[in-house]
Structure formats: C-alpha cells, structure tokens
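Notebook entry, structure prediction.
Reason for the run: the old model in the group folder had no record of what sequence produced it. Starting over properly, with the input documented here first.
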Amino acid sequence: MNDDLKALRDIISSSVDSITAACEAAGTPFPSLNDPIQPSEFTRHGIRSQPAVMRSISLIVSAATQLIATVRPPPATMIISAFRYTLPAALGVIEAGNVAEILRDAGPKVEVVQPPPATMIISAFRYTLPASLGVVEAGNVAEILRDAGPQGLHINEIASKSGMDTKKFSSKSGMDTKKLSRILRYLATEHWFREVSPDIFANNLLSSLLDSGKEINEGFDRRSKHENSKGMSAMAGYVTNSADECIKSGSYLVEMMTDPNTKFSEEPNCSALQKAFNMTDTFFEFLDRPTEEYRRKRFAIVMARTNRGNTPAAIVESFDWESIPDGGILVDVGGGLGHVALEIAKAHPKLHIVVEDRPLVMDQAKSFWEENLPSHVDENKVHFLGVDFFEEQPKLPGPVDVFLLRNVIHDWPDKYAIKILRHLRNAAGPNTKLLVIDNVLDHVCGTDQDATRPPSPLLPNLGGASLLSYSADVAVFCVLNAGERTIEGFKDILTPSGWKFHGVRKNPISPVFKPAVTAGPA
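New structure, fully documented this time:
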C-alpha cells in the first residue's frame, strides 16, 4: 500500500509539472479557480485544449480521487458519499437565485485543472452516488459479495440474490441484471466495490462498510439487518437514510428557498422535507408516526453508531471529566440511545448518567445500555427519561454537573435552540457546565483571529478536508430547516438563553470535525 501512495503522489507531481511546463511554453498562466471562466476555455487555443495537458488533467483528477479514497478514514468517506446530494441541491438554489449573475462584476477572485464545464456537470450529478449506494444497500450486495472473496461474483448471481424481499428467493425477487451492473460499474469508478473482470464484482474497503455481517438466508430481513450489528457496518444506515428522506428533501430545496411561505421561516416544519413528503409534520413528528417504526429505528441506530466514525477518545477527551466529583451527574440531552454518555461512563464509571430523549426511544435506549454497559444499569447509575426539551426539565436525581448536547442543537433553528438552552439554564446550578458537541463552521475566507492557516493556496477552512461539516450543514437544513453554526452563531443562541460562551475545544482526533463548545451560567 505504501508503494501505491507513492505512485499516486508521483502521478500528481509529474502531471502538475507537465501542465506548468505547457503553460510556460505557451506563455500563459493556468486559469485560477478564483477567476470567472474565460471564452478562451472553449477554443482550441485554451490551455486545457492541448491533448498533453488534458491527459495530465485526467491523471491528476484520477490519482487525486483515488488518493483521497485511499487515505481518508472510510467512515468519513461513507458519510460524505451519503451527503453528496447536497451539492446539486445547493447549486439549484444558487441558480434559482441568480447568484452567479449578481457576483459577476464583484471583482477579484488557486488553480483548477479539471475543465470547469466538466466540474459543473459532475457536481450536478453528485446525487447519483448516494442514490446508487442506496440501491446496493437495499439489494444487500455487500453481504452477497462477502463470501465471494477477492475473486468476486458475476453480476447475474449478484442480481439474482439481491431481491428487496429476501424471504422469497426467485428470479422475480432479484434486481434487473443490466440495471444493477450499471450501478455497480459506476460505484466501482467511485472506488466503492471493484470490477475484477468484465461483469464480475468484489467488495473493497469502502463497500465492506455496507456489510451487516449477517447471512443472506430464508429468514433475512433487510429492514432490520443493521439492528444489533457490530462494527462499522451499522453506520450504513447513513446510506439508506440519505438515499431516502435526505435526497428526496434535497430535490425540493429550491422550492423551499423560493416559496414566500417558507423561504424566511424559522419553523422546523417549513423545510424541504415537508414539500418532498407533502406533509406538515416536523421530521421528528414524522419519525414518531406508528407507520414509521423502520425509519425511527434506523435513525436511532445511525445516531448511535456515529461513534464508530468519531472515536471514543474524541468524546472522552472533549472535556475534563476528572473535574467532576464522584457521583456527579451528566445529563445527555436529546441523547438518543445514550451512546455518547455510555463512552464517557466507560472511561469514568463513577459518573451517574441521565439519558433524555423522546419517550418512544427510551425502551430502545435501555436495551442498548443493558447490552453495552450492564453494570451501570444494575447499579442504578443510569436513568432514562422521556422528555420534551421544549418544556422545563423534569425532576432529576440530583444537581447537574454537565449538560451534554451532541448533534442536537444543529437540529433546531435559532429560536427553538434558545428555548432548549434556556430550559437547561433554568435547571442548572452555579457551577453547571454546558457542553455542545456539534460542527463549528469556519468562514471559508478565514478571519484575522485564526491562530494558524493551512499553506497557500489551500482554502483557510481546509476546503475538501472539512467538506463533511459543510455537507452536514446543508443536509440538516434540507430536513430540519436548521444546520451547523459558526462561533458567532453559537454566541447568538447562548447569550439570550442565559449561558456564557467559554470557548471551543478542538476534536483531538480530527481538526475539522465535531469540536466541543463549552459554556457556563452567565
């Protein structure tokens, strides 16, 4: 593998050298990413029109894409892939709002090697990745290929076993061979799966994340295959979640942003989701419907398994838990199954835990703790409270040392986030700490307060390396009419709710993902 990394590096380096040499020979600079496209791009005199330059461009794009797929943590790649629909959704909003025309004459503007028209078309087609991943996840393709090993399996056999109703194996229950081969060939090009030889496919590093580890047999049910599954595979719910309500919502983002009834609204039931599903329920009301048990359980599993991509060290090291006295109380607000608090309790077993979420989730949460940390349940050191966090806090076992909110505040527009935080402030003591673990977005241009900046010409916010946070922002916006916040955005909701912003502690595992915002009573 080290040889592969070096080879990819060398391909990029030598190809860049070839392009710069061609530019010097032609006496023209390579077009900058920051400048508008020039008419010369579309003539035979354009630098990208030279066959040798185009070959170098193809090599750079291919090598860079493969290098990213190789070195980036697989869970991050899976989530980013699931969120790929957010780019065409956002581009649709920009086009509808005539933003490019408005900015045309705004003035000054890193070089981009891929022809801009190609980048535009590929960007518009990015929804095809989560859509295709949704198909292979629904067809259990990763499970089917598990036992085939590196030699792979022919598409005919894959398709025949990939029925949506796997309790009835027959030629009619499987997927169409030609259609599935089209999907797999595309995914292999995106470095999900391998095409070993014509029409023979095998799992690879990324596709193995989709494998539930369960056997495809007469009693197999894909709708529950990730329940009680171990390891990274349980995160595959991101794929089905994204290919379902998320991508459907994204396709209605333009309508939401241009409808006079919704475009200025801060209501959680005025998102693109409501237009996609033709309803007035919020996302969480939708999940609580009796008919939506599958989506409800899937969402809970996805939230619980995000720890696989955000390792326990990142959770445990986000705060000085040793400063909490023995028997101190941590309240995991909107904690789902309590997966974050569980990791903290494992590292600091003297803490008492309160898990708060919607009442329908609490039975599932108790089962989760009984399986993963039964000692805390047996010793009555964990409590499960079904709550509405828009109401005052219920009676708690004692004074609260820490209120923890992870992936909660970004689910709510400002006025609702303030209401949640104000209720917590009313239940807090003078020494209670507030810990919010959410993405903190940097301005793309950077600020004068930035302690360090990446080397030029990289974007100050690290661009593609921090794409996960910005994609999540748009994804949450599509479904909940909310999203991630900048530091200023956090101060805007902390101050009016009675909390004082203390600072941001970077994630010890990732410099760009899920830091901890800390606050105390004002």
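Summary: The beta strands are 153-154, 194-197, 200-202, 329-333, 352-357, 382-386, 402-406, 433-437, 499-505, 516-521.
The old model has been moved to the deprecated folder.
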